[in-house]
C-alpha cells in the first residue's frame, strides 16, 4: 500500500470508499463550513509543487521554505532567509511553483504583508518551541523509511514526571517497539534529543522517529529498542508559553541534570529499560546534538553510543571536550559507535568537521557522514535511519 | 505550586533558577535567533489580556477569538465571526486589549490583510483537522481541574492500529491512569470522541483530558479509568492532508464500524480494558457528541454510559433515534447515565433541548446540564470534569 499525500492518493482513498469525489462537507457546530477551496499545495507527478494562498486583500505574499534557494550572502550581514515571491491572480489567489524536489517531508510558511503565517488550510503542522510551520510530503516511488507501512507498530507514550533537578513537572515521549507489552527482557534505550526549535514531541510529530523505528525493526535492520525523547529546555516546564523556550546560559548543564538524575531513573522505573552502558545510546539534532556531545562525552560509563546530528558544536573541540580528548584509549575502549553527521551546506558543518578532525588526530574511532543540504529536518530523519541500525550490536 | 502562564509566573520560573530575567537567547543552527520581542499576549492581574502583533507592513490586523462579542446577527446572512480590530502603533506593533475574561484556556488567531494566521511567536497551538489556532490561559486563583498539579500522572499512549473496516492504518490516543503499569485488574473505559475541527490528539493537546483525569482521580472524585480517543473521521487515515477532514455523507456509519469493530477490539487486546457494558462509556463533543448519540443509543448492550457534549444533534430526536425511543423501559434498565450538556448560546442548543424534551416525554432518565456560553472548548473541559466523576459507579 502506497501512502502518499498527493491529490491522486486522496482520490484513491475516496474511490476506495465508493465515492467518485469528496462530497460537500457536513455542517459544523451550527456555524457552517467555509466553502471548499483548491488545495493549498499540490505535489505534481514531476515533483514540482504548486502553492496557493487565498489573500485578495494582501499586497505582498511570499513563500518561505528551506527547500528554496537562499539569496547570495552579503558580507557582514546575517544570512537572508530563503523565500519565493508569490504572484496574485485575478481570483485573489497567490501562487508559486517550486521544484522539482527530491522525495522528503518539507516545511514551509507564508509571509503575508510581512507577517509569517502557517498555511491556514493545511492540518499538517510542525509545532515549534517558538514558532510553527506547515509540512508537506513529496512522495517517493515506494514508501520511504519515514512513511507508515503495513508493519507492526510500536507505541508512543507521553509520560509526565516530576523533575527533582528542575523542580517542575515535565513530559517526555517514549517509544516502545512492537510486542513490547508481551515481552519480558530488558531492552536497550536510545535517548534522542530535539533541536532548539522543537519540543519533546518533535522527533515523533516532525521526525516520525516512531515510524522509522517501526520500519527498520520490521526489516530486521534495527534491533528492537526503546526511544526516549525528553524536553531539552530546562524551562517552560509545564506548558509552552511565548519566549519560554529561551533558556539560561547554563541551560545544557541544567538539562544534563534533568536527563541523568530524573529522566533516566524514571525511564528505568517505568519501562523494561536496560541500565547497561552497552545498552544506552544518546543522540540529538542541532541543539540536541550539542547536548548529546556534552553529556555523552562526559559520561562514557553511561552511554556507549553517541550520535551528533548537525550538532551545535562550535569552537575548538579539544578544548570543549578536554577530558574526553585526554584519554583516547578510554574513548576507544568504551564507545561502540561515535556517529557524526552534518549537511555540507549547514552553517554548523565546520563544527562537525573540526570534531571529526580532532578525533582523527587523537586516533579516536568515529564515523563521519557528511550529507548534502543544510540544517534541515529531512536530513535528521535520514541520519536516524542510518544511525539506529548500528546500535546495540 | 501555581501553574499560570502569566508574565509573573514566567518571572517566578526564571527567578527560581537564579535569574532575574530571561537572558539573551543562545545561537541556533548557525542562523541566529530573531531579536527578543515583547510577548505576543499578556494576561494582566485584572484578567484583561493585551495582544500584540508586529506587522509594520500590514494595513489591516484583526484578532479572532470566541471570547470576543460577535456582531449582531443580520437576517438571512450567516453569523459573522467574533473579531476585534487591532490598532497600529508607531513601533509597527498592532495591539488590542480584551476582557476581563473568566479563568479558562482560550483560542485565538489573527487576520492579517485578510489571511488568518496563528500567533507566530506563541508555541501553544491548537492543531486542527482543517486549521490551527493559538491558545492562552487565564489562570484562576488556584490551579484549575485542567491544570497540571503535583499529583500522580497517568500516561497517554499513541497507538497505531490497522482498521480492517476502513482498510487503512490509523492512530488513537489512549490514557491509562496512574499506577496502571503495576495493576492487574481490568479497568473501565471511556471512549471519548473529538469534534469536527479536531483530531485524535485534540482531547489531550487542547482538552487536557489526561490532566483532568489525573486531578479527578487524585481527588478521589473519579474512578481510575482508561480513556480512548480515536480519530473520528473515516478518511485522512494516514496523515492529515488539506481538505482530507471532510468525510462522506455516511461518515458516522463508517466511523461506527471503525470504533466497534477495530478500536474497541484493539483496545481490549492491548490494554487491561473491561469489556462489560457497565464498564464502558461513550461521549463526545460536537461532531463527536453526535457520534456518541448515534453509536451509543444504537448499542445499549455495548455502552451503559453516554455523554453528549454540545452534540451535533439536529432534527426530531424521536425520528433520528427511533429504535431507542421505541423502548424506554430498555433504555432505563440499561443506561446508568445519559448526560447531555450544551451552552445556551450554542447554535446547537436547540438540538440538545429537543433531545432532553423527547427523553422527558418518554420518561427516559437523563441529566440535562445547560451551561453558559456557546460552542467553545472551555465548556468541553468543564463538561468532562462533570461527567467523568459520575462514571462506573
Cα shape of chain A = globular
CATH class of the largest domain in chain A: Alpha Beta
The chain-level structural class of chain A is alpha/beta
- Output the helix-strand order of chain A: HEEEEEEEEEEEEEHHEHEHEHHHEHEH
Uncertain parts of chain A: 1-36
Question: What's the CATH H-level homologous superfamily of the largest domain in chain A?
Answer: Alpha/Beta hydrolase fold, catalytic domain
Could you characterize what this model shows?
The structure is a homodimer of 393-residue chains. Chain A is globular. Chain A has 393 residues and is α/β, with parallel strands linked by helices. Chain A folds into two domains: 7-138, Immunoglobulins (Immunoglobulin-like, Sandwich); 155-390, Alpha/Beta hydrolase fold, catalytic domain (Rossmann fold). In chain A, 24% of the residues lie in helices and 24% in strands. In chain A, the strands form three sheets. In chain A, strands 11-12-14-13-15-16-17-18 form an eight-stranded mixed beta sheet, sandwiched between helices. In chain A, strands 3, 4, 7, 8, 9 and 10 form a six-stranded antiparallel beta sheet that branches. In chain A, strands 1-2-6-5 form a four-stranded antiparallel beta sheet, with no helix packed on it. Chain A is built from ten helices and 18 strands. The first copy, chain A, has helices at 7-16, 202-205, 209-218, 251-270, 287-298, 317-320, 322-326, 328-334, 349-361, 377-387; strands at residues 41-43, 49-54, 61-65, 83-85, 87-88, 93-98, 104-112, 115-117, 125-126, 133-138, 155-163, 168-176, 189-193, 226-229, 280-285, 305-309, 337-343, 367-371. β11 (155-163) of chain A pairs antiparallel with β11 (155-163) of chain B.
Amino acid at each position: 500500500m502506497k501512502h502518499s499525500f498527493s491529490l491522486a492518493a486522496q482520490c484513491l482513498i475516496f474511490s476506495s470508499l465508493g465515492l467518485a469525489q469528496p462530497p460537500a462537507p457536513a455542517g459544523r457546530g451550527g456555524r457552517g463550513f467555509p466553502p471548499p477551496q483548491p488545495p493549498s499545495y499540490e505535489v505534481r507527478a514531476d515533483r514540482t509543487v504548486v502553492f496557493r494562498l487565498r489573500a485578495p486583500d494582501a499586497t505582498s505574499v511570499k513563500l518561505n521554505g528551506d527547500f528554496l534557494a537562499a539569496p547570495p550572502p552579503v558580507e557582514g550581514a546575517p544570512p537572508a532567509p530563503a523565500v519565493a515571491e508569490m504572484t496574485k491572480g485575478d481570483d485573489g489567489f497567490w501562487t508559486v511553483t517550486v521544484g522539482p524536489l527530491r522525495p522528503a517531508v518539507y516545511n514551509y510558511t507564508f509571509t503575508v504583508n510581512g507577517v509569517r503565517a502557517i498555511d491556514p488550510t493545511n492540518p499538517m503542522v510542525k509545532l515549534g518551541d517558538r514558532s510553527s510551520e506547515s509540512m508537506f510530503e513529496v512522495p517517493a516511488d515506494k514508501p520511504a523509511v519515514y512513511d507508515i507501512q503495513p508493519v507492526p507498530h510500536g507505541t508512543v507514550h507521553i509520560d509526565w514526571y516530576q523533575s527533582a533537578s528542575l523542580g517542575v513537572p515535565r513530559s517526555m515521549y517514549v517509544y516502545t517497539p512492537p510486542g513490547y507489552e508481551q515481552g519480558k527482557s530488558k531492552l536497550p534505550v536510545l535517548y534522542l534529543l530535539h533541536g532548539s526549535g522543537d519540543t519533546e514531541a518533535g522527533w515523533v510529530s516532525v521526525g516520525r522517529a516512531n515510524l522509522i523505528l517501526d520500519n527498520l525493526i520490521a526489516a530486521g535492520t534495527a534491533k528492537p529498542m526503546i526511544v526516549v525523547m525528553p524536553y531539552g529546555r530546562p524551562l517552560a516546564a509545564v506548558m509552552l508559553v511565548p519566549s519560554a523556550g529561551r533558556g539560561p546560559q547554563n541551560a545544557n548543564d541544567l538539562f544534563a541534570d534533568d536527563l541523568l538524575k530524573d529522566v533516566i531513573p524514571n525511564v528505568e522505573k517505568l519501562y523494561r529499560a536496560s541500565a547497561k552502558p552497552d545498552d544506552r545510546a544518546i543522540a540529538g539534532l542541532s541543539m540536541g546534538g550539542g547536548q548529546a556531545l556534552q553529556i555523552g562525552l562526559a559520561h562514557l560509563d553511561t552511554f556507549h553510543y553517541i550520535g551528533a546530528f548537525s550538532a551545535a558544536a562550535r569552537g575548538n573541540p579539544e578544548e570543549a571536550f578536554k577530558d574526553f580528548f585526554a584519554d583516547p584509549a578510554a574513548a576507544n575502549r568504551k564507545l561502540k559507535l561515535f556517529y557524526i553527521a552534518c549537511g555540507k551546506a549547514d552553517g554548523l558543518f565546520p563544527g562537525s568537521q573540526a570534531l571529526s578532525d580532532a578525533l582523527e588526530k587523537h586516533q579516536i574511532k568515529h564515523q563521519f557522514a557528511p550529507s548534502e543540504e543544510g540544517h534541515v529536518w529531512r536530513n535528521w530523519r535520514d541520519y536516524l535511519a542510518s544511525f539506529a541500525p548500528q546500535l546495540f550490536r
